[in-house]
Design goal:
Strand order of the largest sheet: 3-2-1-6-5-4
Distance between the termini: 116 Å
Helix content: 25-40%
Length: about 625
């Protein structure tokens, strides 16, 4: 509309249209100077020969001037005016050009404060639009004196307005593109995190299957959460007897460390995240120290600070009827937990609880097996003139049991007046499992019983008596064994009589280090095809100061080397170490020759003391 002095004022509901205001915001333009908008305002001023050119965007409560040329102070610095000072709102409301020759005579605009304060007299404004035709503001030419605007003036301003609207639309497009790119990136990030979580949980379901101890479970939790959640602390506390929580020892934070000692064992009623999670069977989380401090007493606050934590999550470890404990994760910085983070922690805690249940069963089984093994292995007796030591190492490290044995027992003299005999044996049941250990225990006891019942009989007869019982009772035990009788002679020397049922040969090391392999042997026991063949006894004198060494094949026989090579290595070691104590010798032999043998290992050393050492010796 051009020069309509009798027109009525417009209502302005369109100024608050949400879509229009959102489009204004998306342009990114504010009251700050914008080079492109300033350039367009300057062209308005020059091309139309006016003192002021403006790019005005009309917001709900003010108009901003990102493009400006020629406007006096203080408006040139503020680059914004209240709507009460705006002529451009008339353009937005009408969605059409506005031409005013003299605002002082205009019935609508003459009361506008911009007339006296900004010196606006003549005004020509053209709408600035977005792609949908929504009017965002106006491109305007202002004169401080009355002026009649011609169609040419309007065409020039329209051309500049089209260029300005194009720039606005480009900015809106860039905004939309950036927003879409941001949404795409966020979606990709969400999908990537979802994939990572899925992989983590899949890994968890696999990794927890090979755990056998509580420490294994704690380590697996730390490994699984370190890739994405990356906590600086992982701990596990388990519910024990009398409603007490026991924190699992952690090398990074030992139970005895200063500040942590009092929390190694604490009551379930304690106000701690792990106790709360266990007691109430729910996940608890604190994103920062402020939220943590609000729920916890001073002692718990000190604990978190001693651990160097600011954010904490504790998840219960579910059991059949109640939580069996809790896993706690901590971070050295404040952290916001997304629901997906908490869900993943809860799921991992569930896997950990299942693994802990298996670990408890395995620990119970291992403890029982160890006790069974110890019950089946003998405590070496105290014998005047002898010092003995033995070591047993099972092939199955999970069960801590196997089928090898060692034994020593003093046999009674039949008439009570003869010299006592010490029966020593080493044997190897075929196999190295819990079943082999069970059979071994019976075989060792049966051999000892046969030796006790036949104290004056030679070792060969004892082995034959055992074999008869083995076949008659259908024990079906098979393997190798050496049974030897040690006699003290009148001259304080010793005589050894032995029978070898297919076992590695005993070794005697003289006081000067010379080694003898007692290689004489017969067939294995437990094989019916050879059970009718006679067994033989062998006899040798043993000088005081000598060492008798009995062992099983796991000490010398390995897949990657010949049996003779292993035996030579053992002879060389005994030759170098023969003067050491028996306990040290057996340890050196096992650790040096068979630290990770795939077979059970027994090492049994007997020192024949010189005369000055005769007498009772303390139990090893």
């Amino acid at each position: 509309m051009i020069d309509e002095p009798g027109r009525e004022p417009f209502a302005y509901p369109s100024l608050c249209d949400p879509e229009r205001l959102r489009a204004l915001a998306r342009t990114g333009l504010t009251a700050d100077p914008d080079p492109e908008m300033d350039d367009i305002a300057e062209r308005v001023r020059r091309w139309l020969h006016v003192p002021v050119g403006l790019v005005s965007l009309v917001q709900a409560e003010q108009q901003i001037l990102p493009g400006m040329s020629g406007l006096p102070e203080p408006w040139a610095t503020k680059r914004a005016t209240p709507l009460s000072h705006s002529f451009c709102r008339e353009v937005v409301a009408a969605a059409a050009p506005l031409a005013v020759t003299d605002a002082r005579a205009d019935p609508v605009l003459r009361a506008n404060p911009a007339v006296p304060e900004l010196g606006i007299v003549a005004y020509l404004g053209v709408p600035l639009t977005d792609e949908d035709g929504g009017v965002l503001g106006a491109l305007c030419a202002i004169d401080t004196a009355p002026r009649r605007w011609t169609p040419t003036h309007l065409d020039v301003l329209r051309d500049l307005a089209r260029a300005c609207s194009t720039e606005l639309r480009l900015r809106l497009s860039r905004y939309d593109a950036d927003r879409e790119r941001t949404r795409r990136d966020e979606l990709e990030h969400t999908l990537r995190r979802s994939l990572e979580r899925s992989r983590t949980l899949l890994t968890a379901s696999q990794r927890f299957t090979d755990t056998s101890t509580v420490a294994d479970v704690r380590d697996r939790v730390g490994e699984l959460v370190s890739t994405e959640l990356a906590p600086s602390y992982v701990g596990i506390s388990l519910l024990g007897p009398n409603r007490r929580m026991q924190r699992v020892d952690d090398p990074a934070f030992p139970l005895g460390a200063e500040g942590l000692r009092r929390w190694a064992n604490y009551d379930l009623s304690a106000v701690l995240p792990t106790a709360t999670a266990t007691r109430e069977q729910r996940l608890v989380h604190y994103p920062d120290l402020r939220s943590f401090d609000a729920d916890h007493p001073p002692g718990a606050r000190r604990l978190v600070r001693d651990l160097g934590l600011q954010a904490v999550v504790a998840a219960p470890l579910p059991g059949d009827t109640h939580a069996v404990g809790a896993v706690v994760l901590g971070w050295a910085e404040p952290r916001t937990f997304a629901p997906s983070d908490l869900l993943m922690i809860t799921t991992i805690a569930g896997y950990a609880a299942q693994a802990l249940g298996r670990a408890e069963l395995l620990q119970h089984r291992t403890t029982v097996a160890e006790q069974l093994q110890q019950a089946m292995l003998t405590n070496l007796p105290e014998v005047p003139g002898l010092r003995m030591a033995a070591r047993y190492q099972p092939a199955d490290s999970r069960e801590h049991v196997g089928g090898d044995w060692y034994d020593a027992a003093a046999l009674p003299s039949r008439d009570g007046r003869g010299t006592p005999v010490l029966a020593v044996s080493v044997g190897d049941i075929i196999g190295h499992t819990l079943q082999a250990a069970t059979i071994m225990g019976q075989v060792r006891a049966m051999v000892r019983q046969a030796a006790w019942d036949l104290p004056d009989a030679p070792p060969s007869r004892t082995l034959t008596a055992f074999e008869t019982a083995n076949a008659g009772l259908h024990l079906d035990a098979a393997g190798t064994a050496v049974l030897a009788h040690l006699h003290r002679t009148a001259g304080q020397g010793w005589t050894m009589t032995w029978s070898n049922a297919g076992h590695p040969p005993p070794i005697v090391i003289a006081p000067d280090g010379r080694a003898r392999l007692l290689a004489e042997h017969d067939f294995l026991f437990g094989f019916p095809s050879v059970s009718s063949l006679p067994r033989r006894d062998h006899r040798t004198e043993i000088e005081p100061g000598s060492l008798l060494f009995l062992y099983s094949d796991g000490l010398v026989e390995h897949r990657d080397r010949d049996l003779d090579v292993g035996t030579d290595r053992l002879l060389a070691l005994l030759g170098r170490m023969h003067e050491r104590e028996p306990a040290e010798i057996v340890d050196l032999a096992v650790d040096g020759l068979a630290p990770d043998s795939p077979d059970d290992v027994v090492a049994f050393a007997v020192r024949f003391l010189p005369d000055r050492g005769a007498g009772a010796v303390p139990r090893r």
